[in-house]
Amino acid sequence: MEQLKTIGRELAMGSQGGFGQSKEFLDLVKSIGEARSKAEEDRIVLSEIDILKRRLLEPDVPKRKMKEYIIRLVYIEMLGHDASFGYIHAVKMTHDDNLLLKRTGYLAVTLFLNEDHDLIILIVNTIQKDLRSDNYLVVCAALNAICRLINEETIPAVLPQVVDLLNHQKEAVRKKAIMALHRFHRKSPSSVSHLVSNFRKRLCDNDPGVMGATLCPLFDLISEDVTSYKDLVSSFVSILKQVTERRLPKSYDYHSMPAPFIQIKLLKIMALLGSGDKSASEMMYMVLGDLFRKCDSSTNIGNAILYECIRCISCILPNPKLLEAAAEAISKFLKSDSHNLKYMGIDGLGRLIKISPDIAEQHQLAVIDCLEDPDDTLKRKTFELLYKMTKSSNVEVIVDRMIDYMISINDNHYKTEIASRCVELAEQFAPSNQWFIQIMNKVFEHAGDLVNIKVAHNLMRLIAEGFGEDDDDADSKLRLSAVESYLKIISEPKLPSLFLQVISWVLGEYGTADGKYSASYISGKLCDVADAYSSDETVKGYAVSALMKIYAFEIASGRKVDVLPECQSLIEELLASHSTDLQQRAYELQALIALDARAVESIIPLDASCEDIEVDKDLSFLNGYIQQAIESGAQPYISERERSGMFETTDYHSNDHHEVTSHALRFEAYELPKPSGPPEASTELVPVTEPSYYTESHQPISTSLASERESSEIKLRLDGVKQKWGRPSYQPTTSASSTPQQAANGTTTHSDGGGVGSSSSKPRSSYESKKPEVDPEKQRLAASLFGGSSSSRTDRKSSSGGHKPAKGTANKPATIPKDPVQPPPPDLLDFGEPTATTVAATDPFKELEGLLDSSSQDGGATDVMGLYSDAAPVITTTTSVDSLLSELSDSSKGNSRTYQSQTSKGPNSKEALEKDALVRQMGVNPTSQNPTLFKDLLG
Amino acid sequence: MIHFVLLVSRQGKVRLTKWYSPYTQKERSKVIRELSGVILSRGPKLCNFVEWRGYKVVYKRYASLYFCMCIDEDDNELEVLEIIHHFVEILDRYFGSVCELDLIFHFHKAYYILDELLIAGELQESSKKTVARIISTQDQLVEAAKEEAGSISNIIAQATK
């Protein structure tokens, strides 16, 4: 160490004196260092570039000077400027025989060039030569360059040599050769697929560095094909065991952990090998258990290993003991003050929650603290966790939170991600279509054009098809609510284009359907849209089509249509539009307004967006017209095949008709043109075919002007969208959501009441001793997030008798008889009544107190975790029975209850306000002191 | 995999960049600008991780210098944090209580050290001793070469006069 220090200092001195860098260079670095602004820095660098350009062009630059220039180039490039004018000199320097210069050259090219750069080809030859060098430092330098520069095409040029180097006597070379092969594998997996046995061999290398490096390529190989490496499981396990038993040289210790980086790599590999494999997993349990015991959670590296263990355990076949250990590690992370550890804890929770969903509940308040943390990173991680644990019972809370957060951020990348997550959750768990539309509106409004266009089509389709039941009333209510919400939003400035398209379509289709809004009102709004977003052609197109529908419905219903002046001017403007699409829409609209009611109705029938459009391919409706034409002397239509057949037999057509009639390429030679071809025949043909084409193409437009429009819109809507909430899936959603809804109601409306019940059921009277404060809002949030079937964690903790009053407050008398185990104390019911607010006020805390008490009394152990693991499973079963029964009773009670839950569901902002008021009335002020509380509780 | 390593001063000045995935010069400047904006503005007690464009950036501040590494989404952040520390410890040994100035004036040496630690975006050597040994061997060679070159260049210089 001391020696190194002196060497370092000496080197520093040496390089500052004469040989290393010149004064010029040091001045450059210094002036850059002193630069006050980016502009000043840029100026310095630009003048430096000028100098270097000149210097490099000078003839016979001494080599050591050149070396310095190249380092200066590196410096320039590092500062973000283009030094490409000097690349070639760096390449030349790699050719030098002097190792010092060669290394500089290699360093510079690895920093300058990407693997697809043209100059690479000039280096390959040098690299090949250097790989054969006797000096291992030269070989190392070349291998370093290989790792950066070799691309798919040049791999074969160096591969054999690199493979040979796997047996080099110097471990540094072997290690780098392994890493180079790893790189090759990344670039082109097929190039090294035959070398797998070499990797296996290197795993037994007696240098730990080489062995550790070998784990990198093996990890990649195993993640591609697990099955062919199953035989290595025992080797990996035994290596890990040896590492943890400190069999590796001391120099691999890091912060007194034995070779932690190797341990982490091994754990990653084991996670791959053990997933879904019982025997492999069983081999790992032992060593994983040891790791948990041995890991020093006071150092960062120890925690890194612990975290990797958690990941590994969440991947391999679950083992209850290990899961417990992992849960314990996670709770340590979450309780830590360090944000890093909290972040890891949240991540670990997200992984473990898939295996044991209950685990989140004991950490609910910690999770909510993380959600409200000012640290964005932590927040996002927590949202990821929430996304993973969303159920139909908590979807509303979670999605609302996500949207609030989405609105608050500017990072487009993350906004897109969270918007798509919101949409996904809403599609999957939406409790009602109204809610779904509300959420979609919010997502569109705020994330706008970041949303996938399919989502918009999906939404239109939902509104058009409605509930999917034969309940027209509900459908029209849904549409009306959509229309109303859109009319409210539409005048807001700068709505995203996609959202405006949806709005225009819905307003056009259903704006006037209910009779609540007049056609002129809606059309005025649509004109405003077309006006305000005049640069967006798609929106304009949608708006014009919507106008057309509005007017069509008006005409069809026999009312007189007054085209608004602004609408008239819009049409006129669009008639001259540069966009042919808009022009056509405008012409169609203009033509439509002039038609009579009967024609309009057949063009645009009311609310027919869901009808299939039948296309009459034979155009049979034109028969009369054709008949008439034939009678008046027109030639009958000759089908394409007949015409081409005719051509072959009689060469009736001249050559220029050839292209018209044949679609496929013809490989036979053209026939010789007949000089005496009958010109009158061809002139005769032209007038015949032309009118027939004319009728074919023009007729449909004049009769069913808008049917094409309509069909194109239909196509849009059906755009390969999979409907997730549609007919088949809706029914179960309602029934499923109604029951957890009950539970959630129980906890949300009476979360304090629930606390009352459980706490009062405990025959303890130590309430008065301490009063830790829990922010009731947070608790409520926790309850609504985590409350699926059971209410809150604390509720669950309490003795089973506690459920009775809790359920009582939740208006579920049907469940009471299920818990006769412990008759409640006589005063319970009083507590349970929501009117007993003054008592209820203190209860959540008392209840938490009770929790502490019970832990100290039950086993004399202060370890709350242990208590959880003891008590939780038993009660879990009872609660699950409970909820199951409540579900049964719900369904038996039939419609009335479902209806009730539906109504209480809706937009419950009012309810929330009331709840809030209740809480305040009870004298509990929302505070943010619960972190300390939880230290009391759990730490 | 580590996609790039970035050393930025508290004022946002770049001290070292190493790119293990291909980025054009334009992208590089954009990345540096974007990330230094995000990272330098973060408070001291927050996470050392930032989620960024589908990647994660792990950073740690040493005195006035921020060491940042960009990694894949499923990498172990704590491990990378320790890799950074590992790198700093090696630098510290090499320079003898390293300071920003050492890195400013000897950035190429820092590059050589980094090359012995990371290769192709992976940790290649986790033993400080091994890294130190190979770096010092290289330096000795350089010393020898230096003397040699010095004498030769002197001869040449005299001869050409």
UniProtKB/TrEMBL annotation, chain A:
GO terms for biological process: intracellular protein transport; vesicle-mediated transport. Signal peptide: none annotated. Residues 60-594 form the Clathrin/coatomer adaptor adaptin-like N-terminal domain. Keywords: Golgi apparatus, Membrane, Protein transport, Transport. InterPro entries: Adaptor_Complx_Large_Subunit, AP4_complex_esu, ARM-like, ARM-type_fold, Clathrin/coatomer_adapt-like_N. GO terms for cellular component: AP-4 adaptor complex; endomembrane system. It is found in: Endomembrane system. Residues 781-792 have a biased composition (Low complexity). Residues 694-706, 730-745, 893-907 have a biased composition (Polar residues). Residues 707-722, 765-780 have a biased composition (Basic and acidic residues). Gene3D superfamilies: Leucine-rich Repeat Variant (1.25.10.10). The keyword Transport applies. Residues 694-844, 887-915, 920-939 are annotated as: Disordered. It comes from the Eukaryota. Pfam families: Adaptin_N. Belongs to the adaptor complexes large subunit family. PANTHER family: ADAPTIN, ALPHA/GAMMA/EPSILON (PTHR22780). Subunit of novel type of clathrin- or non-clathrin-associated protein coat involved in targeting proteins from the trans-Golgi network (TGN) to the endosomal-lysosomal system. Adaptor protein complex 4 (AP-4) is a heterotetramer composed of two large adaptins, a medium adaptin and a small adaptin. This is AP-4 complex subunit epsilon. The lineage of its organism: Eukaryota, Viridiplantae, Streptophyta, Embryophyta, Tracheophyta.
Automatic annotation (TrEMBL), chain B:
GO terms for cellular component: AP-1 adaptor complex; cytosol. Subunit of clathrin-associated adaptor protein complex 1 that plays a role in protein sorting at the trans-Golgi network and early endosomes (TGN/EE). The AP complexes mediate the recruitment of clathrin to membranes and the recognition of sorting signals within the cytosolic tails of transmembrane cargo molecules. It is found in: Cytoplasmic vesicle, Clathrin-coated vesicle membrane; Golgi apparatus. It comes from the Eukaryota. Gene3D superfamilies: 3.30.450.60. GO terms for molecular function: clathrin adaptor activity. One of its GO terms (biological process) is cytosolic transport. Adaptor protein complex 1 (AP-1) is a heterotetramer composed of two large adaptins (gamma-type subunit and beta-type subunit), a medium adaptin (mu-type subunit) and a small adaptin (sigma-type subunit). InterPro entries: AP1_sigma, AP_complex_ssu, AP_mu_sigma_su, Clathrin_sm-chain_CS, Longin-like_dom_sf. It is a peripheral membrane protein. The keyword rRNA-binding does not apply. It comes from Microthlaspi erraticum. Pfam families: Clat_adaptor_s (PF01217). Belongs to the adaptor complexes small subunit family. This is AP complex subunit sigma. Keywords: Cytoplasmic vesicle, Golgi apparatus, Membrane, Protein transport, Transport.
